[in-house]
């Protein structure tokens, strides 16, 4: 094994402190990995013409299938969505406003207590979630 220069050792130690050092296989360290690859990058083997054409054809077929599936799903009209998410969202806001103004005077809200905040926020989140279905 060759003798490491101080600059190279300092560089290798700086690499071990990087976030990518955690991605090394168990028991491996940067010095052995870099020393093993001193010859430079490994050449990639050539792909045969038939295999390359087959790969390209497979990708194009998969792409066509994916586009047709996406188009089929995208074309589905959903006119009911705004009629549902707006009332659900407004009900959540209204729930929070009523609870803040008169929550202790309304018996069911007084029994629930601070869970009224969770109910109101859940309705608002449900409204926003339904909003994502709108096309």
Strand content: under 5%
Indicate the radius of gyration in whole angstroms. Answer: 31 Å
Q: How far apart are the termini? A: 64 Å
Task: Give the low-confidence spans.
Answer: none
Question: Strand tally, please?
Answer: 0
Name the helix and strand elements from N-terminus to C-terminus, one letter apiece.
HHHHHH
Please work out how many helical segments DSSP would assign: 6
Based on helices, strands and strand pairing, what is the structural class? Answer: mainly alpha
What is the domain tally? 3
The share of residues in helices is 55-70%
Shape, please?
flat
Largest sheet: none
Averaged pLDDT? 78
Can you put this structure into words, describing what you see?
It is a single chain. The chain is mainly alpha-helical and 135 residues long. The chain has three domains: 6-36, no CATH class; 48-75; 81-131. The chain has helices at 6-16, 30-36, 49-74, 81-102, 107-112, 115-131. Helix 4 packs antiparallel against helix 6. The longest helix has 26 residues, at 49-74. The radius of gyration is 31 Å and the shape is flat. The model has no long low-confidence stretch (mean pLDDT 78).
């Amino acid at each position: 094994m060759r003798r490491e220069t101080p600059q190279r050792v300092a560089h290798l130690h700086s690499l071990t402190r990087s976030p990518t050092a955690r991605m090394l296989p168990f028991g491996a360290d940067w010095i052995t990995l870099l020393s093993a690859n001193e010859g430079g990058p490994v050449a990639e083997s050539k792909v045969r013409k038939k295999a390359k054409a087959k790969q390209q054809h497979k990708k194009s077929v998969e792409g066509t299938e994916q586009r047709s599936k996406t188009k089929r799903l995208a074309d589905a009209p959903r006119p009911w969505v705004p009629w549902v998410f707006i009332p659900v969202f407004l009900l959540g806001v209204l729930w929070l406003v009523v609870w803040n103004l008169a929550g202790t005077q309304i018996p069911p809200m007084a029994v629930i207590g601070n869970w009224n905040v969770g109910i109101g926020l859940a309705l608002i989140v449900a409204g926003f979630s339904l909003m994502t279905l709108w096309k």
